[in-house]
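Per your request, structure below.
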């Protein structure tokens, strides 16, 4: 190469390279725009298929037959658990006790029967969890809310596929 060619190369602006980060960001933005557009089209068109509507007609006709499954009535049902008294984890200090009266809320008679059938397991789960609670864990409404949510999570795990809607404290006393 001659000196003139080298000077000509120096005069050209350097080409910018696309970094991998920029490519990924642009690709993600493009997918987001395309996905949003597709969702908007589905919402505007209703998103319903005609074969599903035909299936609904068949289901309506089946209700009048003898072998038609009956839909379970949805209602609010409360199940009172036996009173519980547990000793709290005090770390060797003076013993503390928790007395609780708890009710469970379900929305179907079949759920009530399932809870009653599994009641020993439910009480065991509650006892094991409550015995590990410390007095500090129960302080204030935030502590009570966390306890309620944890008991509900444990219940729904134990009773799956049955769903318990809520755990209600009728009484809670710490001594």
């Amino acid at each position: 190469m001659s000196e003139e060619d080298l000077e000509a190369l120096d005069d050209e602006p350097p080409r910018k390279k696309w970094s991998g980060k920029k490519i990924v960001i642009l690709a993600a933005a493009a997918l987001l725009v395309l996905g949003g557009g597709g969702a908007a089209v589905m919402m505007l068109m209703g998103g319903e298929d005609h074969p599903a509507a035909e299936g609904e007609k068949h289901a309506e006709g089946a209700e009048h037959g003898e072998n038609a499954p009956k839909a379970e009535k949805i209602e609010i049902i409360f199940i009172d658990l036996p009173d519980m008294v547990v000793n709290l984890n005090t770390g060797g200090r003076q013993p503390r006790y928790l007395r609780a009266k708890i009710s469970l809320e379900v929305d179907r008679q079949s759920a009530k029967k399932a809870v009653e059938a599994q009641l020993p397991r439910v009480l065991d789960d509650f006892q094991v969890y409550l015995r590990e609670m410390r007095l500090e864990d129960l302080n204030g409404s935030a502590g009570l809310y966390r306890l309620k949510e944890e008991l509900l999570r444990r219940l729904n795990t134990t009773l799956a596929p049955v769903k318990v809607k809520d755990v209600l404290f009728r009484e809670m006393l710490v001594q």
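The mean pLDDT is 79.

Regards,
D.
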